[in-house]
Design brief:
By secondary structure, the chain is mainly alpha-helical. Helix content is about 60%, strand content about 10%. It has helices at about 5-15, 25-30, 40-55, 55-60, 65-80, 85-100, 105-115, 130-135, and strands at about 20, 105, 115-120, 120-125. The longest helix has 17 residues, at about 85-100.
Length: about 150
């Protein structure tokens, strides 16, 4: 995952000590949606779950998981209730899975990839395969954005 982020963005993330979370929202939405045409719309609900995992107001207010999910369910019922219980439950499952399945890229992984190394007495940036690929030195592998 970390290697799929462009080098300048990785540098910015490291310099500003930004937390990075990842989640395959497409996969989760496709697995949760009972109708394939709803999977794209449900991705936003999955991402809501990952947001609730790191939202500062959740910790600041000392909200338990039960309180967070009760508030989410209340909102989902208000918005989707007229579409039936199944729709409410699918959306609630999407929020829960988004919150539970999002993972943080460890800061150690981000800093290790950006550390300077010494080569023949001079300091240079450690080489990365994608940097070499852009100069035609190596064949670039095809990867999915989630590797």
């Amino acid at each position: 995952m970390w290697k799929s982020i462009p080098s300048p963005a990785r540098d910015y993330i490291r310099q500003n000590r930004i937390r990075v979370l990842a989640l395959d929202a497409v996969r989760v939405a496709q697995e949760v949606a009972s109708q394939p045409q709803l999977a794209q719309r449900m991705q936003g609900i999955v991402l809501l779950g990952s947001f609730l995992r790191v939202a500062p107001f959740v910790a600041a207010r000392g909200l338990s998981d039960a309180e967070v999910y009760a508030a989410v369910e209340k909102s989902l019922r208000k918005f989707f209730g007229k579409r039936g219980e199944k729709v409410v439950q699918e959306n609630l499952t999407a929020v829960r899975r988004g919150r539970n399945e999002a993972f943080e890229i460890p800061p150690e992984m981000m800093t290790a990839a950006g550390e300077m190394i010494s080569v023949q007495g001079s300091r240079v940036q450690s080489s990365r395969s994608e940097d070499a690929c852009t100069h035609g030195l190596l064949k670039q592998e095809r990867r999915t954005p989630y590797e």
